[in-house]
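#struct-pred
JK: can someone run the complex with FE2/S2 (inorganic) cluster? inputs below
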Amino acid sequence: MDTGTAYGLPEPSYRAELTEVGRGTPCGEFLRRYWHPIGLAADAAGVPRPVRVLGEDLILFRDGKGRAGLVYPRCCHRGTTLYYGRIEAEGIRCCYHGWLFDVEGRCLDQPCEPDGGRHRGSARQPWYPVQERYGLIFAYLGPPEKKPVLPRYDILETRGPGEFIDADDTSIGSGGPALVPCNWLQHFENIMDPFHVPILHGSFSGVQFTAQMGLMPKVDFATTPRGTMTVQDRILPDGRIHHRITEAVFPTLRVVPNPRVAGYGTCEQIGWVLPIDDGNFRIYVAGRTTEKGTLGKGRSKYNGKWWWDLTEAEHQRFPGDYEAQVGQGRISFHSEEHLASSDKGIAMIRRLLKRQIDAVREGRDPIGVGFDPANDLVKLDAGNFLMDAPPAAASGD
Ligand code: FES
Ligand SMILES: [Fe+2]
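RT: done, structure tokens with the ligand placed:
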């Protein structure tokens, strides 16, 4: 007899193929076909900086000539960490026996060896390619022969008067702190969940965005040549329509216009959800602005306070995205879910993700990767737009 009690609940499980990011895992190999931001430009500096990306621990630095480098931490000589290395004009020098490596891992000096190392050319510190754009450092952790071009995005390339691109590493939009202790997919798939907005952000915890965003939208979901999107229409009190498009661009880009709707137009920023490892993510943002350091000013307040100033009782009474997503668990148990009709977008993004993971496994290129440097511009549709009410005859529902 099924009484529905928790007694006898089966052992829960999650979809590892969609969530785990390590080397050699299906999703990890899919993610390794793209560039990911791993730091702000300023993070690559004269002091070695440990970074953790897709479950790999690495060292980021910038040599004296201004080139950023990303290397495996264990020195290829006898394995001490380059965290204690010293940055020089040509690269990073290991503290133990002084081997010097350039930003591509080539060994340039072995001071304990005759002639600075006659065989130094055969030593190579494992490294990854990096490129800088939009104030961020992007790294490619995949197979070298599959390295795609680093895309440009029209919403960041086209700027209004006085606008420039600023970058932020505080995980704007996480609803909480910069490091979020749950799986990256819990945040990424949330882009396709517009129905939580009028509940979690519109009424349950008070008005976290704006009253306008609290209106229940009419929603369409679609796939795009680069991922998935939601198209949301909210009928405003004056009869006009707030037409809002949000995009999940594969593999991890959140292209979601400001939910406070300070103005109408194309989305002003892109957030890259960076999987740190299976159970942690952070978000790097680059966006158009007219004032340095202000990208995060649209951050939510709860009960009139910043997230980090809340008491535990207030977190419980005024939860936001951080509480809801971390609350799903380190990696949400998919076996215990009951997807409903309003989860159509969630099912869609997971299906598309699964198809890309399968494509990589079968030797094909996943969605959105390109190899032609002359064709690196990605056009996006996301934004908040104000539309006149449709003519009465055309309004079917
Ligand atoms: S362990 Fe790095 S130089 Fe010896
Ligand atoms: Fe949210």
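RT: quick notes.
The chain has a mean pLDDT of 95.
The chain is about 15% helix and 25% strand.
JK: thanks, will look after standup
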